[in-house]
Structure formats: C-alpha cells, structure tokens
Amino acid sequence: MSKENNSNEIVSRLNEIRRLVTECEDLCLAVSKKSGPRKETSARKTYPVDFSIPIRPFVKKYGQEMSGPKKFALLVAYLTKGDSKKTISLEDLKKHWNKMTSKSLLGMKFNLFYCSSAKDNDWVYTPSTATYSIRPSWKEIL
C-alpha cells in the first residue's frame, strides 16, 4: 500500500468515528429530553432532623458512620436545636460528649481537633472564645 492510500484510509476511519460520536451525542440528548431533567443523586440521605428526641437516641440515629468533626457539628446542632443564633460553651460540649463515648454513640473521647476541623469545614463557628454556634451548612454532614 502506498502512503496516500494509508492516509486516505485513516481519514476515512476518522470521519466514521466522528459520525458515530455525533450519533451517540444525539441519542443521549434525545434520551435526556424524554426523561426530563436529571435529579442529582447523592449518597447522603437528606431528611428532616428531629431535635425533639433525647440526646443519646439523637446521636445514635444521626451520628452513625460519621467522623469526629462531623459528630462535633452534630452535637453542636443538637444542643443549639439547629438555631445559628444560639451558642454553646466548649465545657458543655465536652461534658455531653464524654457521657457518650460508647461505640454505639460517639465512640471516642473528645478531642479539640474536632472543633477546628468542623470550623474549617464551615459547619460551626466561634462567635467568642470557647463558644460554638452552628452554621447553616452543617446539614452537609447528614
């Protein structure tokens, strides 16, 4: 085969690939229009948070499989009942946390790292020294 034949063959195949890709794109567009707009799927469940239940069942229900900083934000959310205007002292947080160190609840002792990491993720903030409030973005942890 000559160089010119090889070049023509390559160009011909590339054109065929381009045609197939265009057909696939058109099919994808047609399917997406039929099924309507896509709903974003998320691995996380979003559901209303029930602050009326006692603290231990609350932590057990919502805190499963969470990291320490997420559990910290969850505890702040519970103690402030999700109200970003309320604050809770660090001492109260430690007291509640250390009452729930069993594996089925928080599963670990309190660590100050959790506070700073929760602040870094914008789940909580400190309006003054050693007090915490919940941020609206805390629901990301659920």
Keyphrases for this structure?
Arc Repressor Mutant, subunit A; 3-stranded antiparallel beta sheet; single chain; 3 strands; 5 helices; mainly alpha; 142 residues
Strand content: 5-15%
**Which value, in Å, is the CA radius of gyration?**
27 Å
Instruction: Write the H/E string, N to C.
Output: HHHEHHEE
CATH topology tier name of the largest domain: Arc Repressor Mutant, subunit A
N- to C-terminal distance:
64 Å
Largest sheet report: 3 strands, antiparallel
Structural class: mainly alpha
CATH architecture of the largest domain: Orthogonal Bundle
Under the CATH scheme, which class of the largest domain?
A: Mainly Alpha
Can you tell me the overall shape? elongated
Number of domains: 2
Oligomer: single chain
DSSP helix count?
5
Number of strands: 3
Helix share bin:
40-55%
The averaged pLDDT comes out at 84
Low-pLDDT stretches are 40-44
- Order of strands across the widest beta sheet? 1-3-2
